[in-house]
């Protein structure tokens, strides 16, 4: 192996999704949560095919150029992906069978159409006629000139009506899971509780759907087509970016097929019929699966059993700095505040914006928006601010993948109310998590800023581990103001000392910090780096970490997702890497550099990927407050001690659980909550 080799990005991502599947397999995880992890795994994989696999398929056309960009022939990568995905699919199906068995132990049974009691049959027939039949649109395929369009994210039955000594008839039915629940709860029988999938309700009643056709038997097998989700934004100077995005969203719905998943029990003759009709290339696109597809719906699996079948998470904590305080802005004026989600309440962010919206001294609010919640309280606070005469500026990213339509709706809503709406920056995605509140105090403008690692989204803040810095430190707030000036006028790039701003300065700064550690290690001084990221992919920065390792710098990595860096080689002997996958999604980015003993701390919205460092507007903020530095270091130390949900990231990418010398099981997410809770009570008392 050549020095400075890196792991394939796509296979590393599949290794991450395998860690999600491990949670579904883990019998210490509550049963319904295991089922939900099956849904997360499935949803992740769908997006992987819609985005990454679709991209690689498009790059096949580039020939040699694609190999230079990807580091490997795209055809070889696609082959590796298919092999890995098929292996994971087989494991997935095995885990599902285990889950059915474990549900049975708790008197919960998922029935199919062949397992029904007379009571259940009567219930299902009534439910089918009342709810399901009106939503079905059967399409006969025999005389169809063109095969019906298969929508992305939808599942279908390919149906064969077998007729005695006559040619069979074929039909297609979309499972209406967007308008009806995927799971139907059936009447109990004693202590036993029953659930049936919508798919099997339809299977049981197919004879009624096709009653007008004479047939001996009916076969129905699930199929699902995944399409390319990349937006094709036309280079038409006569159109605004909003018009281009709107048009591209319509095209996305008809993206090129990248995967056909089908029930592995489907007979060969039906599969051949299907392939001829939709022109799918067998070796590239076909993924055999189980009886049920779209397992993302299992995220909403009904809990009809005991409470202990799900995680019973403790209540979110109020931050001790805000306890008993009437004004949040006055608190932030006195000291920086670090909020840590989901352990602490996201309501504090809403409260700050709500206070700003009615405070007569507040003149303006500026904010970046990447993904907002449905019925967003953040947006409501901004609307309220405008009604109270505040100037509101919204920098909305309308190229946030899969949120483009929602963001356009939010932008139009605020624009109609009088907000200044900036539709991102040409050529860059605005991924920074900022707001800036300007207040007139003693005749002067006083700024209050937020710099965070996660979106302004109260829904995901209950599930994502993120951090937010609230500060009035002029060193920081003045530079946040510069960044908003850049969003308004892209010629005003500005210079920054306390923020690391991508794509202009962030990469260079990180290289300088790593070089400083290398110099210190070579001089015999303390030298270490600790990085917490979602993804580590960037080739240049990985090479610098290898250089640092060879120089003797001690490097610890906590990487949730993709990690292309190879540990355990001669050039990476001083690098250790772990990944934590647990009940919350690790999402914060924290960077700590030894800096000769005077450690430098940063929080950021950016991963170490070329897209973040070179093609997005991202921010990392220097942490100056000593108490907040201690907070971050304590939480990172707790995570590094995790021996319950941490896995080693290694060259084999086989995700072995991490063991430590500790006799006690340390589960970082639980321990961080305990620590924050104890600290809160100490501060208040």
Salient structural properties:
Endonuclease, Chain A, 20 helices, alpha/beta, eight-stranded mixed sheet, 685 residues, 3 domains
CATH H-level superfamily title of the largest domain: Polyphosphate kinase middle domain
Can you tell me the CATH class of the largest domain?
Alpha Beta
The biggest beta sheet, please?
9 strands, mixed
Strand composition percent: 15-25%
> How would the global form be characterised?
globular
Mean pLDDT: 90
The structural domain count equals: 3
Tally of strands? 26
**Unreliable stretches covering 5 or more consecutive residues:** 231-246
Distance between the termini: 59 Å
Helix content: 25-40%
- Measured on Cα atoms, how large is the radius of gyration? 27 Å
- CATH topology of the largest domain, what is it called? polyphosphate kinase like
Structural class computed from helices and strand pairing: alpha/beta
Please give the count of helices.
20
Give the second-level CATH assignment, the architecture of the largest domain: 2-Layer Sandwich
Describe the structure.
The chain is an alpha/beta fold and 685 residues long. Helices cover 38% and strands 22% of the residues. Helix 1 (9-25) packs antiparallel against helix 2, helix 2 (31-59) runs antiparallel to helix 4 and helix 16 (506-522) runs parallel beside helix 17.
């Amino acid at each position: 192996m050549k020095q400075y080799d890196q792991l394939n990005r796509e296979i590393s991502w599949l290794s991450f999704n395998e860690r999600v599947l491990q949670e579904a397999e883990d019998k210490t995880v509550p049963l319904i949560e295991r089922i939900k992890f099956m849904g997360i795994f499935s949803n992740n994989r769908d997006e992987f095919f819609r985005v990454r696999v679709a991209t690689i398929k498009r790059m096949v056309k580039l020939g040699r150029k694609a190999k230079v960009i990807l580091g490997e022939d795209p055809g070889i990568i696609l082959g590796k992906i298919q092999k890995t995905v098929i292996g994971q699919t087989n494991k997935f199906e095995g885990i599902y069978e285990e889950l059915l068995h474990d549900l049975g132990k708790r008197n919960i049974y998922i029935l199919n159409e062949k397992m029904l009691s007379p009571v259940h049959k009567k219930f299902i027939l009534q439910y089918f006629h009342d709810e399901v039949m009106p939503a079905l649109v059967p399409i006969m395929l025999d005389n169809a000139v063109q095969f019906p369009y298969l929508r992305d994210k939808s599942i279908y039955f390919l149906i064969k009506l077998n007729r005695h000594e006559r040619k069979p008839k074929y039909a297609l039915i979309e499972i209406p899971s967007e308008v009806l629940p995927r799971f139907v709860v059936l009447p109990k029988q004693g202590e036993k509780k029953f659930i049936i999938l919508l798919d099997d309700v339809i299977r049981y009643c197919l004879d009624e759907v096709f009653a007008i056709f004479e047939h001996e038997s009916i076969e129905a097998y699930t199929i699902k087509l995944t399409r390319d989700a990349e937006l094709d934004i036309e280079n038409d100077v006569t159109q605004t970016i909003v018009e281009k995005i709107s048009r591209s969203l319509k095209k996305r719905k008809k993206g090129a097929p990248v995967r056909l998943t089908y029930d592995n029990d489907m007979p060969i003759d039906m599969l051949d019929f299907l392939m001829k009709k939709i022109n799918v290339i067998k070796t590239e696109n076909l993924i055999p699966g189980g009886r049920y597809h779209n397992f993302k719906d299992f995220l909403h699996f009904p809990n009809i059993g005991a409470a202990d079948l799900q995680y019973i998470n403790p209540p979110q904590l109020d931050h001790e700095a805000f306890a008993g305080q009437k004004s949040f802005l006055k608190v932030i004026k006195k000291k920086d505040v670090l909020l840590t989600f989901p352990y602490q309440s996201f309501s504090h962010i809403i409260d700050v914006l709500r206070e700003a919206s009615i405070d007569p001294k507040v003149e303006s609010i500026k904010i970046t928006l990447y993904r907002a919640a449905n019925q967003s309280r953040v947006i409501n606070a901004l609307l309220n601010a405008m009604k109270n005469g505040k100037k509101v500026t919204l920098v909305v990213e309308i190229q946030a993948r899969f949120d483009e339509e929602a963001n356009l709706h939010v932008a139009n809503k605020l624009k109609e109310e009088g907000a200044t709406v900036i539709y991102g920056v040409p050529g860059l995605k605005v991924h920074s998590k900022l707001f800036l509140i300007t207040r007139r105090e003693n005749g002067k403008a006083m700024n209050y800023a937020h710099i965070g690692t996660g979106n302004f989204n109260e829904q995901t803040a209950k599930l994502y581990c993120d951090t937010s810095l609230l500060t009035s430190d002029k060193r920081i707030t003045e530079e946040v103001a510069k960044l908003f000036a850049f969003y308004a006028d892209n010629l005003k790039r500005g210079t920054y000392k306390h923020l690391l701003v991508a794509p202009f300065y962030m990469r260079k700064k990180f290289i300088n910090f790593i070089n400083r550690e290398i110099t210190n290690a070579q001089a015999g001084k303390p030298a270490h780096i600790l990085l917490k990221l979602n993804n580590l992919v960037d080739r240049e920065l990985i090479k610098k970490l290898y250089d640092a390792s060879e120089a003797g710098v001690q490097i610890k990595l906590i990487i949730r997702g993709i990690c292309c860096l190879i540990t355990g080689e001669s050039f990476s002997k001083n690098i250790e890497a772990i990944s934590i996958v647990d009940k919350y999604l690790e999402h914060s980015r924290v960077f700590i550099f030894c800096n000769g003993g005077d450690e430098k701390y940063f929080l950021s919205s950016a991963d170490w990927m070329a897209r973040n460092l070179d093609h997005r507007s991202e921010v990392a903020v220097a942490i100056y407050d000593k108490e907040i530095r201690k907070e971050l270091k304590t939480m990172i130390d707790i995570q590094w001690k995790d021996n319950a949900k941490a896995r080693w990231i290694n060259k084999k990418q086989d995700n072995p659980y991490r063991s430590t010398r500790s006799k006690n099981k340390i589960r970082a997410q639980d321990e961080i909550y305990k620590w924050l809770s104890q600290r809160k009570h100490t501060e208040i008392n």
